[in-house]
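ingest -> fold -> write
write: protein_1
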Amino acid sequence: MPTLRCAPPLCSWASPPPSDLLLVTVWRGSHSLMSVLHVLTCGCYSPGRGLSSSEDLPYNDEKLDSFPFFVLVILTEMVDAMKKVAELDVELTAEERNLLSGGYKNVIGARRASWRILSSIEQKEESRGNEMHVKWIKEYKQKIESELSRISNDIMTLVDEHLIPSTSAGESTVFYYKMKGDYYRYLAEFKTGIERKEAADLSMKAYETATTAAEADLPSTHPIRLGLALNFSVFYYEILNSPERACHLAKEAFDEAISELDTLNEESYKDSTLIMQLLRDNLTLWTSDIPEDGGDSNSYYRTLPFKKSYYRT
């Protein structure tokens, strides 16, 4: 499976330490207070690289002494404030929706990044036969998974009990069902067995509901409709392991938007064209996973600049 395109690091002054010890030593102390440190660590240190001593830990750097916790407080306060607004059972404005969504995405995104890096290190340590290291990683992964479940269930309760019942606009309906699809997809990323299947089924159902509403109420160039197609196609590719269906959905959304690009208003032009670029980038990579036939309808996308990783949110 392709490597993940990570978000830009929040800091750039740190260089990877030379040692090959376990990266898990970075994450010590209260895991519930380390969200931003996870992001900083993922940005500053390469997967599989470790730290040689406590002096190498990023939060012992004077430049990082207070910044992570300052950012964490801001994110936590923003989520708490927007959660209270959502519980008022009033229809949120577009700005309020974005604040709520962005706050939760930042909070959960750090943990998703940590989980992926730890999974990569776990495989490496298993191949080396380092059973104690693997045990430590598994224990920490379980803590992260508990937080991922808690955050996902929290936002989905808000969506089901407050946000969807309070909305009347088609745009908001698409937005909230897309959120449900996203957060069930996040659960399916680490769940196993029956729990994974249940999360995947609920994600599929939410994405399909959002797609039906989007096709009825939003133009093909609308950023929310394009973002839905982007995330739904990632669901097909990553969760259902179906590059063909992922490519079909992404290509259809891209082509429909291209055909109506002239009607795009200036207000949403930047957002829409950015998502279209991401759809195209994913198609460039994903079509390489599909065996070529004589008359390949996806051949155009193979001629586009190749990306080593695909975009996912």
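write: protein_2
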Amino acid sequence: MFKKDPDLKPLSNLKNSDRKKLFAKVVEDYKVSNVPIDYLFPSDSKQGNFKSPLKISGTIYTDAESTPTWFKTKDSNVLPSIMTLWRYPSLIPIVLTNDMVIGKLINGADLMLPGCIPPFDSRCVKGSIVGVASYKQPNVVYAVGECLLGLSDVEETVGKSGVAVRVYHHFEDHLCQLAKITLKPPKEEEALETILQFQDVTSEQPVEEDGLHNNAEALNSEVQDETIEHEASDSNELAEVLTELTVEDVDMFFERALLQTITQDKISLPISASNFMNHILKNMPPIDSSLVTMKKTSWKKTSKYLKAMQKLKLLDLKGKGEDLTIISVASSDNEKVRKFVPYTVKSVNSSKQSQNKPSKDKLTILFYYKPNSCTRSFFNDNDKVTNVLYSQQELKNILNEYIRSKDLVREKNKIFLNPPLQEIVKLKEGRTIARDKIFSEFLKGFTINHKIIPINTPDEEVESIKIKKGNVPKVEIVTEMRIGRKVVTRISNFEVYHIKAQELANELRVKCSGSTTIGENIQSKSTEVTVQGPHEKIVQELLAAKGLSPAWFNVTNKLKAKKKRT
């Protein structure tokens, strides 16, 4: 429902009479009683109408901080947001799943029946509103939707099919992005505290809610005990390993590392074989890495290993020879994936991690390149695919290897352009180009894409961040004089860097000792923060402190005197 910007109209205060009507409706729909109205609808609640690009219209209710609390469409009842359920998780029944499925839901998928973990709450009947949470944190809801199946009667989900929950709203969707503060899911301990507080003011259905909570705790405890037992058995087995392992043992370690990758890592597909193997090696069971190498397997080569895993139906490949691309991995329907119990991997030295992962202490931007039609002959000549994204280093390696294999180096370190390269590198005359210039010209045959990684993003979440088309957008900083000879500095297009407007306005108000306002930029239709006074340098310093490079700023000073005509 909120996969795109809902185009929320300006908020207005919620009338007390309307607040009481909504509260009465919620009490009726969700069977709660003896709850103070301020618990569900604070006196400073606001409302605003929306109409999304998907032709869905309705009303969004927020608290004083503009954090969405409830929403409804013209055809639905009032539905709680996940922020409301973080405070009152026992308000609706919760369907449990695993972390891998939670990642799929956050990317916009519905919850399928095989991804659900029984037992189910008796309230999970067809048409009921339910939350979705991980079995590791059974009281922290990540999605809200409508139950499409009678889950209360389902005892086993393996081998069955169908959509269990149609998701209406999930964590990090555009409804969450309306909040002026940075949203972060609570920890399980915090969720348990809120349940106790909520039960103090509710008297209806205490047995059922306690039963649900106990079921979730029992399931969580059971899974944890099973994992601990499995890890203990793994440790005992590994302790018996001597200085050498058999080929079968090494093969087993590589197969288990693949299953660990499939079940625990968030991977953006398709992915090159080299990048995929980084996940495999990272997810090896806790054992001396010198004992487990590809050369000690029965496959000897990465390509043969991946093709063997394809025969086991654990992944699908595309490409020829050594140049392979993983286009899909096995789902939980696969028996090996379903029966696999994850283990704890040993931590990798931080100096080695930093070579392949973005820095956590600053905002990072990764660039990807998609081949255009003019590169088709070149990639066919290389037996490589054109429907995937490449990093700059991957393209540089491909080009250098192509130049070497085709013997294109000429005197004075110039590169001869054969027909496939001529289609990409356009020269006004001649067929040779300096080696230090060919790569920059070569990149012109590709469409640039980018991924913006916020500060302190966990490694497991980097893969799930969406890649966006085009180059990095620049933050617009404009200093100008308005009517009344008031000088202001306007900042817009900053939200793409995961900077909240309210946080930026608060910081500028303190640093600039001037008033700030939040509005809409007329030209770009994006959120704009305005601070009184000429403060372009302070704005740049503040954004730089958040990890932004000066190259990402577009600074305009309209106060500079224009040259007089002579």
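write: annotation protein_2
The radius of gyration is 28 Å.
Residues 12-211 form a domain with the Sulfate adenylyltransferase fold (CATH 3.10.400.20).
pipeline exit 0
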